[in-house]
Amino acid sequence: MDLGKTKQQTRRTAVVERIEKKSADTFNRSITSADDSVSESGGDSSESEEENGEIEHPDHNEHDGGEEEDEEDEEKEEDEEKEEEEEEEEEEMEDELEEDGDIDAAIKKADAKKKQSTVKQRREYLNLVSNITTPEDLETLMRKTFMESQTTVAAHKRELVILKALMVRAYALELNDKFNMTFCKLLSKILPLKRNIKPADKVVKFVSSFFENINPLKIRDGEELQVPIPASAFEEVHALFINKVVKYLMKGLDAKDTTVRYRSCQLLYHIIGNSGAMDEDLYESISDELSTKVYDKDAAVRVKAIAALACFQNEDGGSLSVAGKKIRFIMQNDLNAEVRRACLKHIEKNRYTEPFIVERARDVDTVNRRTLYTKILPTYSSVTEISSANRNKLLEWGLRDRDESVRNACANWLTNTWMSNANNNIMEFLDQLNVTESEIADTAVRVLLNRNTEIVNTFEFSKEFYDNLTPSLALLLRVTYEYCHDNQKEDVIDRLYPEAAEFAVLFEKFFVERTDNLQKISENREKLENDPNIVKELEIVDPDDYDYIVKQLLMIAVDYDYSDEFGRNKMYSILRSTLANNTITEPLLPLLMECLRKLAVNERDFCQMTVEIINDLKDNAYEKLMQEKKMEETQRRRESEEQRKRRKRRYGNEEEEEGDKGEEDLDKGNHEVSDLNERVAKLLNDDGDISDEQDSDDDSDEYHSAVNEMSRQSIIEANKSRQEEIDQVSALPPQVLTDCLTITKCMLQLVFSPLRENMLLISLLDNFIVPCVNERSEVEVRELALICHGLCGLLDKEVAVSTMVVAGIFVTRSDYESFVVTGLKVIGDLLTIHGISILQSESQISIDSMAVAKVFYRTLKDQSKPEAQTTVAITLFKLFLCGVITDDELFETTLLAYFNPKVNNNPSLKQCLTFCIPTYAFSHQDHQELIANIVYDTISRIYKDWPEIQRLNQENEIKKPITANFIIESLLYWTDPYNLAMVDEEEMERSSNHLDVGIQFMKLLRNFDYNNKLHRTLYKPILRALSKLTFTSKADLTKLRKFSQCFDDETLCQGDLDEVLKGDAICKTNFLKSHTYVQDCLRDAEARAEANADTDDIVDAENNEANTEVENEATKNNVNSHEAVSGGHRPGKALSLHEDTSQIGSSHSTSNNTNAFNGEEKSDSSAVTVKRETKEEDNGDRVAEVGQELGASDSPVEVVQVIRKGRKTKKKGKSTTREHGSISKKSRKSTKGRKKLDDEYVVNLGRDSVKTHQDTSEIILLDSE
């Protein structure tokens, strides 16, 4: 009753609103003027038509292969039909309301009329059915039923009853064959109709509902369907009907018409899905037919074939069916996004298909990824049906997706579906997530907190909570702190979190528990290996759990409030002692070092503390090692003494005494020899020192001060100490060195002051890091040492020079790929920080730019080291983007690697190049110009290896092979000025990048031979690309003229251009279209240039007139004041305008006091000013030349003309100065004996290393006003 009342109230409200709107429209129409009556009548008619539902609005939901499925369209159609019905009912109620004036009464009357009309129509149809006696009458009513079904979905219910009655009547009259044949004929009427034709789709839905209603196995309302014929007879009739229809539609699966195949698959999907039992032979035959249709050339047919084939899957969730295997394969390999989406929707869900369903979260199509989270995952009865690893993957891929809609869909699935399964308990959710193995757990919790901001206020972190932390609780503690910290909820932090001192005690507690747990594991290792179940008895916890808890506490400690000095000192001492114990693992070490850096007084104090800990670790390990050696030596001597005693008892005292004596003499002699060698070495050292002193200062031969003695002694002790530390490095075990180097690396990553300001770091570098690189052979030790060496190089330029040499040796001479990767990273970081200046060092041990380029070039071409290839590509593009490297040949190498099919064997390299090349191209106009300049060379080198590229395409079976169209389109895309970032439209219109590309395309066509089979397959993409070039008439005029002349070149295609264009209409059209466009742009550009030239002439004429007026006025003033200024200048109007002017040449002296324009001398009051802003000598010469050209009698107008003449000459000339460290293309061609990398390889490093010398001298004529 409540639902009925609610529905009645809703209808009543709708009717009232409709009436009010109608009355308001009537009132508005009544007050309008008579002049607008025509428009009113038009508007009234349109409004009335809309009210009556007579206007057919265009269907904006139609699509051909879009993102939505046919099922969604059908749902929309049903909604539209329901809306139409409601509108009709509302119209009826309006009529009743106008008569009675009571809304409730009107609604009741409308319902009663509707029921009466429905019952009446049904009785009429049933009377007609009962009066059928001939096949013609049966066919007529069936046709009428199908006609009514395509008008509206609302009539389906009535027509289904009638059609089922017709089927029963046909059985009674023994006209089953006639009924089945007529049904198939009526179905054939919709088979040729294309997709999204609404009448056909309504008929399909009607047929689907009919098969659902006559299914004997279907149960509705808990009872079997009741039919007026025996159940066994009806099943037989149903089976014959199904066989007839299915066999008829199977003939359409092999039709040539795509639409027929599509409709046949669509109908089979609805019939099979709504039918019960089926003949076994028919079942197998239709399954085989549909298995072939999933490979149909049309994607829409494949979609419906997959939907129909999905009906043959197992529903019990056991083993994977044959149909399921087929659908799983299609979902993985089909190139069409809609087909993959259909597989995703219809595939059975079990442990065999789960990984492939989860894999769709990485689908290239955004809709498929979103569909997975919105429609597929919510259908699981419980999230725990998905494995823990796959749940983490779904969250990680969804919450970090590049598309915002996918991220929102994943967040909705997390907050709605998953949390509902977890009873909206965040702790239960974290337990299901398995946080210790998840990298996305913190992001997921943050999403929950962001979507439910009030949940933080409900948290209560008691003392018991802190004492019994688990990994899940620790994660919640950390994420909540970060959330409150980022949203400035200080009151919540003060309420939930303890003071700094208490937090330090908490950290110490869990760290001690972690250490004790590790000790238990080491003590009971044998027991654990024999009986893993003994863990609970020994109270041993998984070490990863303690590591995770400590990690979360450290992450909180980094941003914790240490305003309390006592808490800060306590935390600092605990962290320092923790680091000194050397029981911290590498994942926790960077966080611990970051906390120490924040708690330390300054950077020097932090470095001193860390170096002391490193030295203590080394010394303790070395002492322990020496003690072990001493004990071994003692044991060895003890054994030798026992052997001597045994010999003494065996051979007697005499022989033993002689042997002892001989051994004593030998030991004595050895001691004497060693003492002698030490004396000689000492004397030599003393003599060397004395001779050095004598050479340096002859006056100090007889004088040795105590200061010198102390200095010499300190140097000897320092060298001795350094040698001891180097000996320590050689003797210590690798694990100790690895721990110390890891601490060193973490420390250097937090240091930013220059290396020379911290002697502790210099000592650490010389005495520890360098020996680890040179003296040790372990891979891990040498890698860490090289990283530390590179970090030191970032802090000092001189160290960077030596580090470059060491890293270069690692890259070029090492067989371990890890060494090569580490060396490349170090080289890239050093060049990014210091630029190419470290490659131009005057040091004897250094590396030049050519050697670095060779390293990059050879590594990028080495297919045997894929990780090194990816690393060098990333390094190169970092340097390209920073402007450190501007070499076109090196960038060309990256393009050749991208267009090589072998790049598919290295997915990481392909992904890097696919992202980095467009990013580099669109970041700056100069980058696009660089790519445009190497188009010819790139395509030429690719075409030389074209047969090899085709062979690799076939061998590797690449889904998207490297083709000529792909290469040309990629180059056009990268050089399109409209793809530039942060550039306005005016600059894009002035760009000439595509003109350069077009000129190089013409150069390629000039070299192509039409009779060459290889060239014949390659010229078409170039000709077709000419019409895709993007430029305007505002581009460079010279390049426009050059490109226009290329079209008239008779050597294009070696003279066979006409023959080429005759054979391909598309190429001809594009060629002529491009030629016409270029000529139009050239005419506009020339007209604009002429207009600008006329404007310049007018401006020059106006300037000349103004200068003449200035000259006349100055002459008049000088004549009037000739007597006043004969003895020298006095302050006046003419001089006040030029108080700060500088003079040209020595002849323009301030002592000249004669008339400025009397033809004899030039006075101090000249209106000419020279402004010098350059330091080069040629600028000074230019100024001197201008001064000589001016002379003493030149007028201001002549001065301006001389200056302009100089400027025009300067504009015409081009600077020939080369940048330091670069090799231009022209100089490469003319230089003999130049170095080559590989075939045509040269290097050009350092675009911005040295500024180009430019003459910036400027002479300015000041305005007399």
From TrEMBL:
Biased composition, class Low complexity, residue ranges: 33-45
Biased composition (Polar residues): 1142-1157
One GO process term, biological-process aspect: mitotic chromosome condensation
Skewed-composition ranges (Basic and acidic residues): 14-24, 54-64, 628-644, 1159-1184
Keyword Kinase carried by entry: no
Residue spans of biased composition, Basic residues class: 1204-1215, 1223-1235
Cell division recorded as keyword: yes
Renumbered residue ranges of the record's region Disordered: 1-102, 628-673, 685-705, 1106-1238
Annotated compartments: Chromosome
InterPro entries hit by this protein: ARM-like, ARM-type_fold, CND3, Cnd3_C
Bias kind Acidic residues: ranges: 65-102, 654-666, 686-701
Domain spans labelled Nuclear condensin complex subunit 3 C-terminal: 740-1030
PANTHER family registered for this protein in UniProt: CONDENSIN COMPLEX SUBUNIT 3 (PTHR14418:SF5), CONDENSIN COMPLEX SUBUNIT 3-RELATED (PTHR14418)
Similarity comment: Belongs to the CND3 (condensin subunit 3) family.
Name of this protein: Condensin complex subunit 3
Source organism per UniProt: Pichia kudriavzevii
